[in-house]
Amino acid sequence: MYKCKFVLILFFIIFPFFSYSNENATGIIKERMEKFQESKNLMRAINKNLSDSNFNVITESAEKLNKWANEMHKFFPKGSEASTSNKSQASANIWSDTEGFKKAIKTFENASAKLIKISKNKNIDNTFSSFREVAASCKGCHQKYRN
Ligand code: HEC
């Protein structure tokens, strides 16, 4: 019983420091992973709504992607690249080639902005090719900056 209490106390003493020191890296990596998962869902939603010619949902989804493109740079602080202790797939190239990474974000930002505009015209062919440009911008960045 005595031993048990001791361990418990030790746990409460150590735990706050432990979680504090890990919070930054884990927090931001987790957050960006969630954002990317959301991007995947938005792309699926756009794909589905293309076949239903539901242009309003496409515009709204593209707006969310564009908002994410605008804030993405804030989610990659130095020291948050993939390591054996985190689940990140962020390549070290992001920090060794910051200009290239910025460009890849810009390509995604422009492609999503274009999709917002084009989807409003409700032309299926143009919207589809604009959607493919967005998908290409995801892939282009992953090839260089995701492990
Ligand atoms: C400018 C670069 C860039 C763009 C653009 C980009 N991604 Fe990513 N993506 C990354 C990086 C880097 C990671 C790895 C993040 C990590 O694990 O820390 C990632 C991870 C992911 C993941 C895995 C998330 C997880 O849970 O581990 C998915 C899914 C994803 N991206 C989808 C997309 C989709 C869909 C798009 C386009 C709509 C997109 N990404 C655009 C760089 C990008």
Question: How would you portray this structure in words?
Answer:
The protein is an all-alpha fold and 147 residues long. The protein is 78% helix and 0% strand. The chain has five helices and no strands. Mean pLDDT is 88; it is low at 13-25. It is elongated, with a radius of gyration of 20 Å. It starts with a helix and ends with a helix. The longest helix is centred in the N-terminal third of the chain and has 50 residues, at 2-51. It has one domain (28-145): Four Helix Bundle (Hemerythrin (Met), subunit A). It has helices at residues 2-51, 55-71, 93-96, 98-119, 124-145. The site of heme C has 22 residues, from helix 1, helix 4 and helix 5.
Secondary structure blueprint with pairings:
Elements: H1 2-51, H2 55-71, H3 93-96, H4 98-119, H5 124-145
Helix pairs in contact: 1-2, 1-5, 2-4, 4-5
The structure holds heme C (HEC).
Low-confidence stretches: 13-25
Instruction: Let me know the largest β-sheet.
Output: none
Instruction: Give the DSSP E fraction (strand runs of 2 or more residues).
Output: under 5%
- The portion of residues assigned to helices is over 70%
**What is the architecture at the second tier of CATH?**
Up-down Bundle
For CATH, the homologous superfamily is named as Cytochrome c/b562
Nearest-integer average pLDDT: 88
Q: Which structural category fits the helices and strands?
A: mainly alpha
Say which molecules are bound, naming each kind only once: heme C
Globular, elongated, flat, extended or rod-shaped: what is the shape? elongated
Radius of gyration: 20 Å
Total of domains: 1
Q: Helix tally?
A: 5
What is the number of E strands?
0
Q: In whole angstroms, how far apart are the ends?
A: 48 Å
Instruction: Output the helix-strand order.
Output: HHHHH
CATH fold node name: Four Helix Bundle (Hemerythrin (Met), subunit A)
- Would you state the CATH class? Mainly Alpha
